[in-house]
Design brief:
six-stranded mixed sheet; alpha/beta; five-stranded mixed sheet; 19 strands
Length: 384
C-alpha cells in the first residue's frame, strides 16, 4: 500500500467518531421524498460541510421535489470523477423521532441509516480527506439528488443528471452496500404506471344488462399486461395494486390498477410500452374506455464494458490495500447510476455502508463497514 493511502487510512480511523456523529445527524432528520423542506435542509447541511472542505456548491432547484446538490472541486474543464447518491428517504414525517439513530451490537438503525445516509457520510468525508491531502488526480463532482426514491417524477433531475455527468471519466454511487461485498455493475430499470378504466354503472339487480363493468374490463387487461413479461429478456410486468367499484350490488363504473415494470434494457421497456398501447386501445367490454400514464421512470443501469473493467481494477487495488475481495453483481432495484451508464461512463454502484432490509423498519447497517467502505472509496480515487 502506498504512503498516501496509509496516511488516508490512518485519518479515517481517527475520524470515526466524527463520521459517526455526521451519520447520526443525517439520519435524525425527517427527509422523506415528499418532505421537500426536510430534504432541502439536509442539502444545506451537506453544502456547509463540503464548502468548509473547499468545494463550490450549487443546487438545481425544483418546485415540487427536493433540490439536487452539485459540488465541485478542481478544474472541471478536465475529465472528472463523479461521486453520487441521494438525500431523500422513503420514511414518513415523525419517523426520525420515533426511531432515531441507534447503534447496538455493531448494527446501526434509524430511518435511512442504510439507504443511504451512511453512503452520504462516506462521500462527504472522502472529499474532505482528499482535499486535505492535496488530491489532484481528478477534479471531483458530487451529485446528490433530492427525490431519487420516487424516480424524479416531479422534477427535472434525470435530465439534469445527464447534463452534469458529461465529461466524467468514471463514477461511484454510494448507494446501499451488500453484506456479501457485492458491487453493482448492472441494475434493472423501473417504471410505474397508473391505469384507469371507465365503464357504465348500473344496478346489479334491476338492470344489470345496462351496465358495462370496468372491473371486468380490467380483469381481461391485467392478464394481457402480465403476459408481456419476458424472463429471458429480463423484463417483468407486475400488476401490484388494483381497485374498483363501490358496492357489491352495482355494476362497477370505474376500476384502476398500479403496474410495476422492471427491465434490463431500454429496448425491453420499449417493447412493453408498445404492448401497453395495444392493450389500452383494445376493448373487451363495449362502451368502456381505458387510459394509462407512466408516473415513475428509473432507467436501467445497463452493463457496459467500461464498468466491468473498472470493477476489475478496483477489486485488484482494494485487495492490495488489505481490503476484502469484492464480486460484481446485477440487481433488480434501480438507482441513479443509470444516468451515468446511459452517458457511457464506467460506474460502480452500491459502494456505501453494508446492510439489509432497505425501506423497512428492519433496515440496518453494519457499523464497521463505515470505515471499511470509506477506505475502499479512497483507494479507488487514489489508484484508479
Amino acid at each position: 500500500m502506498n504512503q498516501t493511502l496509509q496516511e488516508l487510512f490512518a485519518k479515517v480511523d481517527a475520524a470515526k467518531p466524527a463520521m459517526m456523529e455526521t451519520w447520526r445527524s443525517l439520519v435524525d432528520r425527517d427527509c422523506g421524498s415528499d418532505n421537500k423542506a426536510g430534504v432541502d435542509a439536509v442539502g444545506q447541511d451537506i453544502k456547509a460541510f463540503l464548502e468548509a472542505a473547499g468545494c463550490k456548491v450549487r443546487f438545481h432547484e425544483y418546485e415540487k421535489a427536493g433540490n439536487m446538490l452539485v459540488a465541485e472541486y478542481g478544474d472541471m474543464s478536465k475529465p472528472f470523477v463523479v461521486l453520487t447518491g441521494h438525500m431523500d428517504t422513503v420514511f414518513a414525517d415523525g419517523t426520525a423521532a420515533a426511531r432515531p439513530f441507534t447503534v447496538k451490537d455493531g448494527r446501526v438503525t434509524g430511518p435511512g441509516a442504510l439507504d443511504m445516509k451512511g453512503g452520504d457520510t462516506i462521500l462527504m468525508y472522502a472529499v474532505k480527506f482528499l482535499i486535505e491531502a492535496g488530491y489532484d488526480r481528478y477534479p471531483i463532482k458530487v451529485i446528490l439528488a433530492g427525490d431519487e426514491e420516487v424516480g424524479h417524477g416531479k422534477s427535472e433531475a434525470g435530465k439534469d443528471y445527464l447534463a452534469e455527468v458529461k465529461g466524467a471519466v468514471m463514477g461511484f454511487n454510494m448507494e446501499t452496500g451488500f453484506i456479501d461485498n457485492g458491487i453493482v455493475i448492472e441494475r434493472k430499470g423501473c417504471c410505474r404506471y397508473r391505469w384507469d378504466i371507465d365503464g357504465v354503472g348500473a344496478h346489479a339487480g334491476n338492470n344489470p344488462e345496462a351496465g358495462r363493468s370496468a372491473v371486468k374490463e380490467l380483469a381481461h387487461k391485467l392478464l394481457d399486461m402480465e403476459a408481456l413479461t419476458d424472463f429471458a429478456e429480463g423484463t417483468t410486468v407486475n400488476v401490484g395494486v388494483i381497485g374498483g367499484g363501490t358496492v357489491a350490488n352495482a355494476v362497477p363504473e370505474h376500476a384502476w390498477c398500479i403496474v410495476d415494470v422492471r427491465f434490463r434494457t431500454m429496448a425491453g421497456l420499449a417493447r412493453v410500452e408498445k404492448g401497453f398501447e395495444e392493450i389500452a386501445k383494445k376493448t373487451y367490454i363495449d362502451h368502456t374506455t381505458t387510459k394509462y400514464e407512466r408516473t415513475v421512470l428509473v432507467p436501467a443501469m445497463e452493463r457496459i464494458e467500461g464498468s466491468e473493467k473498472l470493477f476489475e481494477r478496483a477489486n485488484e487495488e482494494a485487495q492490495k490495500a488489505g481490503l476484502p475481495a469484492m464480486k460484481a453483481i446485477a440487481v433488480g432495484g434501480g438507482s441513479d447510476s443509470a444516468y451515468l451508464t446511459m452517458a457511457g461512463i464506467p460506474t460502480l454502484c452500491a459502494m456505501g455502508v453494508k446492510g439489509e432490509f432497505n425501506h423497512t423498519v428492519r433496515e440496518w447497517a453494519e457499523e464497521s463497514s463505515l470505515t471499511e467502505r470509506e477506505k475502499l472509496l479512497l483507494t479507488c480515487l487514489v489508484t484508479l
